[in-house]
UniProtKB/TrEMBL annotation:
Pfam families in the record: Esterase
Gene3D superfamilies, sorted: alpha/beta hydrolase
GO biological process, one term: formaldehyde catabolic process
Organismal lineage: Bacteria, Pseudomonadati, Pseudomonadota, Alphaproteobacteria, Sphingomonadales
SUPFAM superfamilies: alpha/beta-Hydrolases
Catalytic activity: S-formylglutathione + H2O = formate + glutathione + H(+)
GO MF: carboxylic ester hydrolase activity; S-formylglutathione hydrolase activity
Species in which this protein is naturally found: Aurantiacibacter gangjinensis
Protein name: S-formylglutathione hydrolase
Tagged with keyword Glycoprotein: no
Length: 279
């Protein structure tokens, strides 16, 4: 396994690093950011995966999300992966919501996406192995979060892997790719026309089909420009109520979709995850 540290910068007492490695899942080089809090020699720290949204690389959350102070205070490693494979030989599309930067955390089955767009396998299987080999993580103490398309990733990966994450949170997640233009466009392209195949990538469908998850926190801005047309938080509220789940879905008055919103609440999310990660 070839894993290379590209940078290391002291920040809020911890070390903000960027790593690159050859990925067997995507068949490309993949880059991720890793924030390592101060810790004693030999200590293993809990890990929070932060999945980013449309148009993002590993860098957006690292630069804009302001997680580092809280992560250092609580002793939680934060990993920010890229959102798709990239490169000259990788399929792409001119639209911001499809192709490179818009992997939707699925394993594509359709051409020309299938050879490289395998973000489910990358995030669920390969990246944890890479991180466990390179960094001082305690893989028995994992949590996951994400923003927008990354919030969809966090919820669906959490629902498909009950028991792996002590806690799951999301900022302004895409609730149901089956029921929004971003999702319909991307999943038609990556998975084909049979909408049954999309259900394992849809938080509402997963709950309807019996998936269950505890310790879930969702924050959504009431002034989010995508709330009505794309995100549709009410679909998750309905699914959670119908399934009798005790999830905390909060509407935050006046906040939009941006990292200004995410950065406002990220310290609270990290403190909440830390309580679950320490038990
Ligand atoms: N107008 C934007 C649209 C893309 C956008 O808003 N992306 C969001 C996530 S949306 C859902 O996944 C984002 O996080 N952008 C990166 C950032 O640093 O803000 C555009 O054309 O870029």
């Amino acid at each position: 396994m070839s894993v290379e540290k590209l940078s290391s910068s002291l920040c809020h007492g911890g070390d903000q690093q960027v790593w690159r490695h050859d990925s067997r899942a995507t068949g490309t080089k993949m880059t991720f950011a890793a924030y390592i809090p101060e810790h004693e020699e030999g200590a293993k720290l809990p890990v929070l995966w932060f999945l980013a949204g449309l148009t993002c690389t590993h860098e957006n959350a690292m630069v804009k999300c302001e997680y580092k102070k809280a992560a250092n205070e609580h002793g939680v490693i934060v990993i920010c992966p890229d959102t798709s494979p990239r490169g000259e030989g990788v399929a792409d599309h001119e639209d911001y919501d499809f192709g490179q930067g818009a992997g939707f955390y699925v394993d594509a089955t359709q051409q020309p996406w299938q050879p490289h767009f395998r973000m489910r396998s990358y995030i669920e299987d390969e990246l944890p192995e890479v991180v466990a080999a390179a960094l001082p993580v305690d893989m028995d103490r994992q949590a996951i979060t994400g923003h927008s398309m990354g919030g969809h990733g966090a919820l669906t990966i959490g629902l498909r892997n009950p028991g792996r994450f002590r806690s799951t949170s999301a900022f302004a997640p895409i609730i149901s790719p089956l029921n929004c233009p971003w999702g319909e466009k991307a999943l038609t392209g990556y998975l084909g026309d049979d909408r049954q195949d999309w259900r394992e990538y849809d938080s509402v469908a997963l709950i309807e089909d019996g998936a269950r998850l505890q310790n879930v926190l969702v924050d959504q801005g009431s002034a989010d420009e995508w709330l009505e047309g794309q995100l549709k938080t009410h679909l998750l509220q309905d699914a959670v109520r119908d399934a009798g789940l005790d999830w905390d879905i909060r509407m935050q008055d006046g906040y939009d979709h941006s990292y200004f919103f995410v950065s406002t609440f990220v310290a609270e999310h990290i403190a909440w995850h830390a309580r679950h990660l320490k038990v």
